[in-house]
């Protein structure tokens, strides 16, 4: 039911209400939107902004790298960076909207939100098209993917050393007096050479 609500919200957003054929292939992405939206349960404006940014991305998914359902968690993680970039690029417009929100809330009524998320939401709704907003989202997704890839590369040595240790430990555990020994010493010498090189590198 909740997935259907998100799908309906998206179809309304793109002007195709109840045209479910459009989102048939996006079921996993919609599930991820719903899952990650829950992280903003006590932040209604932030939740709405996350959904809006996700919908803009879903609509333009053909321009993004990777699967859309993989990109949704990245959008959730980088939402603060997307907000910061929008506020930086459209400082005057966002300030004007925030001032308008404050004027509607002179007594600081907590039921009326004047936070940046709501101002950004109203700003996006006023735009003729969301191409500029999508450009910001795309940039943050690419940056996040590259950062994760770089982190994986940096951790690759330790990961492979742990894997090699496990394989050697397994080999030691399964050896028996009648296990074939041919070629084992040669391979162990090769391993010792590589270990010596790695130790030399790690000690620098």
Quick one: how many beta strands? Answer: 0
Provide the structure class: mainly alpha
Task: Give the low-confidence spans.
Answer: none
Radius of gyration, whole Å: 26 Å
Helix-strand pattern, N to C? HHHHHHHH
**How many angstroms does the end-to-end distance come to?**
58 Å
Would you tell me the overall average pLDDT?
90
Which strand-content bin applies to the residues? under 5%
In DSSP terms (H or I, runs of 4 or more residues), the helix count works out at 8
Write the layout of secondary structure elements.
Layout: H1 2-13, H2 27-37, H3 44-59, H4 68-89, H5 91-103, H6 116-126, H7 131-174, H8 184-202
Defining key terms:
204 residues; mainly alpha
Explain this structure to me?
The protein starts with a helix and ends with a helix. The protein is mainly α and 204 residues long. The protein is elongated and about 80 Å long. The chain is 73% helix and 0% strand. α3 crosses α4 (68-89). It has helices spanning 2-13, 27-37, 44-59, 68-89, 91-103, 116-126, 131-174, 184-202.
């Amino acid at each position: 039911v909740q997935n259907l609500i998100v799908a309906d919200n998206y179809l309304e957003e793109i002007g195709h209400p109840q045209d479910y054929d459009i989102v048939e292939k996006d079921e996993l992405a919609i599930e991820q939107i719903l899952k990650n939206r829950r992280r903003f349960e006590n932040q209604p404006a932030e939740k709405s902004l996350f959904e809006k940014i996700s919908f803009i991305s879903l609509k333009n998914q053909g321009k993004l790298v990777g699967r859309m359902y993989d990109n949704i968690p990245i959008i959730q993680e980088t939402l603060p960076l997307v907000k910061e970039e929008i506020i930086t690029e459209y400082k005057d417009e966002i300030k004007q909207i925030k001032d308008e929100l404050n004027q509607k809330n002179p007594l600081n009524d907590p039921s009326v939100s004047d936070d940046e998320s709501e101002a950004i939401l109203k700003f996006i709704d006023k735009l003729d098209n969301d191409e500029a907003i999508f450009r910001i989202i795309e940039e943050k997704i690419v940056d996040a993917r590259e950062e994760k890839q770089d982190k994986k590369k940096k951790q690759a040595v330790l990961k492979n050393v742990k894997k090699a240790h496990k394989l050697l430990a397994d080999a030691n555990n399964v050896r028996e007096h009648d296990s074939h020994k041919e070629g084992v010493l040669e391979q162990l010498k090769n391993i010792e050479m590589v270990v010596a090189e790695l130790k030399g590198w790690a000690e620098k």
